[in-house]
Amino acid sequence: MRSTLKFAVPLAVAALALGACGTTGGTSNTPAASGGAAACGDYKIGMFGALTGPNANLGIYIQNGVNLALDDYNKKHPDCKVTLENYDSQGDPTQAPALAKKAIDDKKVVGIVGPAFSGESKAANPAFAEAGLVHITPSATNPALAENGWKTFFRVLGNDATQGPAAAKYIKDTVKATKVFVIDDASEYGKGLADIVRQDLGSTVVGNDTIQQKQTDFGASVTKVTASGADALFFGGYSPEAAPLIKQLRDAGWKGTFVVADGVKDQSFIDNAQAAAEGTVITCPCVPADVAPDFQAAYKAKFNEDPNTYSGEGYDSATILLDGIAAGKDRATMVDFVKAYDKPGVTKQLKFDAKGEVTDVKVFAYKVEGGKIVSVGEIK
C-alpha cells in the first residue's frame, strides 16, 4: 500500500516565498539592513558530502535538491543571487576536518547543507560549532550527533533512534521473521543503526557479524548466516558492500529476506546486485518522491529523473538557509534564525527541538520490485 501522506504546500514552498534580500532597491548591492550580512551577491551556502567515490550517488541526490532550491531562490532574487560551494568529502571522515576548515575560512559561506554522512559529521561538526557556522544535515542519522551540545547542529530527518526501531518492527510484524541475523560495517552509521536493531529484536537475533567498508569477499559471513538458520538478515551499512553481500548469499542458496536501511537506498545497489536485490526491504526516514508532487515535477524537469534518496531533504535544508539570507542573516545570526524556524517544507514541517532534531519524524518502508525501489508506505 502506498503512502497517502500529503503536505500543506506545493512547490511554492518556502524558497519561492522568500522576501527581499535585505536590499533597499532592485539593484542595490549594499549590505543587508539586519544581521550585518554580507553584500548581496556575495552569499554562499555549502554542500558537504560525497560527490565522488563509492557513495557519490547519495551526495549527488542531495546536491540536486540543493541546486533546485538555489534555482528557485535566484529566480526570485536576480540581483541578490546566492551561490553554492561544494565540499566533496567522498564520504571519508578523515577528509572532513580539512574540508570543514576550508568552509569556515570562507567568510562568504553562511551555512552548510550537510555533512551528509554520520562519520564525517562526527569529524567536522566540532569545528563548525566552534566557528558558529550552521550545518543542517539532510541525511546523517546517528543519534549521538545531537548529544554533543553543538549549537550549530540541525537535522531535517529522523535519526536512527527512530529508524532502528521502525526497521525492527517491520522485520517482526511485516516480514514476520523469527530468526534474524544482523551484520554491520563498523562505520559510525552502520554499527550505530545495527546495534539499535539488535537491541529491539532481542532474542530474535540468532547471530551477529561485522564486515568492513570496501570489503568484497563475504564468504565467512555467508557461512555464518546460512548456518544460523536465519529467515531474515538486517545489514547496517552502505550499498557498495550490501550488493556483493546479498549476491554471495543468494549464490549460496540463502532464501531469507534481506533488510537494509537508507545507506543502501540507491539504484547502484540494484545495478550491482542484479537479480539478487529483488525483494530487498529498505527503511528510510525519507519521503517517497510522490509525496510532494509539485517538487517531484520540478525536479524531474531539471534532472530528467524523479527525486531520489534525500533530494527533498537537501532542498528543505537549503531552503532554510536561503530563508535566513532573505531575512538578512549572516553567519553569526543564522543560528538563532534556524532555531526559531517553523515552516512547511516539501518533506515535512520544518521545526527543530532544543537539540536540533526535527520535530516531525516519519520512517518509510521501500522494496525492490521489478528492478526498482518502490514505496510500500509509512511504518507506523
From TrEMBL:
Keyword Transport annotated: yes
Superkingdom of the source species: Bacteria
Residue ranges occupied by any Leucine-binding protein domain in the UniProt entry: 43-371
Coiled-coil positions: none
UniProt xrefs under Gene3D superfamilies: 3.40.50.2300
Entry keywords, A to Z: Amino-acid transport, Signal, Transport
InterPro entries per UniProt: Leu-bd, Leu_Ile_Val-bd, Peripla_BP_I
Similarity annotation: Belongs to the leucine-binding protein family.
Protein name, entry field: Amino acid/amide ABC transporter substrate-binding protein (HAAT family)
Native species: Humibacillus xanthopallidus
